[in-house]
């Protein structure tokens, strides 16, 4: 198992962080989608948002770690089979994915702390409000959070479909080199 990136493939640390973020994003989206229809008398009414907020805060930490790792580790070169347009669109998509991720996490934080309260992350620690009470902030942040998370999930889905297209149609190593463990192929 290769921990660090090489010029040919992503290492296990980078790939694991990538898939962990993907799993958290789609899991949080599904949980958020489910939570909007909960009523006060539903057993999951308080637990669902607590899990959502806690994982959201932990996701923020993981994304920061991923960005730091990305800055410190080498980046594999684009595959020779990729056109300049594909390379550019991949870079733009990654940039927009990060922008949407941070916007979703910050807006989620602002929804939860608009009344001045902190966010309790499971039973481990609390993240205090940095804004204090701001009337109406949860509504504005809620609208932003709603639309940004939809955009994030749509773009992440397109990103995944592009990787599958490279794997099935182009038969290149785009998807394979993002797996934490090298599989047989051209790695």
Estimated share of beta-strand residues: under 5%
Order of helices and strands: HHHEEH
CATH class descriptor: Mainly Alpha
Number of DSSP-assigned strands:
2
Class by alpha and beta content:
mainly alpha
Q: Which quaternary structure do these chains form?
A: single chain
Unreliable stretches (pLDDT < 50, length at least 5) are: none
- In this structure, how is the largest beta sheet organized? 2 strands, antiparallel
CATH topology: Fumarate Reductase Cytochrome B subunit
How many domain regions?
Answer: 1
How large, in whole angstroms, is the Cα Rg?
A: 19 Å
Overall average residue pLDDT? 92
Outline, from the CA principal axes?
A: elongated
Distance between the termini: 12 Å
Q: Helicity level, as a percent range?
A: 55-70%
Helix segment count? 4
Describe the structure in brief:
This protein is mainly α and 187 residues long. It is built from four helices and two strands. It has helices at 12-35, 47-72, 84-113, 137-168; strands at 119-121, 125-127.
How would you characterize this protein structure?
The protein has helices at 12-35, 47-72, 84-113, 137-168, and strands at residues 119-121, 125-127. It is mostly helical and 187 residues long. Helix 3 (84-113) packs antiparallel against helix 4. The longest helix is centred in the last third of the chain and has 32 residues, at 137-168. It is elongated, with a radius of gyration of 19 Å. The mean pLDDT is 92.
């Amino acid at each position: 198992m290769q921990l660090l990136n090489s010029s040919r493939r992503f290492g296990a640390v980078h790939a694991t962080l990538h898939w962990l973020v993907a799993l958290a994003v789609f899991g949080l989206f599904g949980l958020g989608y489910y939570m909007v229809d909960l009523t006060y008398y539903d057993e999951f009414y308080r637990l669902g948002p607590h899990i959502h907020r806690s994982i959201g805060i932990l996701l923020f930490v993981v994304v920061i770690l991923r960005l730091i790792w990305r800055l410190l580790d080498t980046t594999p070169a684009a595959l020779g089979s990729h056109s300049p347009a594909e390379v550019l669109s991949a870079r733009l998509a990654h940039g927009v994915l990060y922008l949407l991720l941070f916007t979703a996490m910050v807006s989620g934080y602002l929804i939860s702390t608009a009344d001045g309260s902190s966010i309790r992350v499971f039973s481990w620690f609390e993240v205090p409000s940095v804004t204090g009470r701001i009337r109406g902030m949860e509504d504005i942040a809620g609208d932003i959070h709603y639309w940004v998370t939809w955009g994030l999930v749509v773009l992440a889905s397109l990103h995944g479909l592009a990787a599958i297209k490279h794997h099935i149609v182009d038969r290149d190593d785009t998807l394979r080199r993002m797996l934490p463990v090298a599989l047989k192929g051209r790695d």
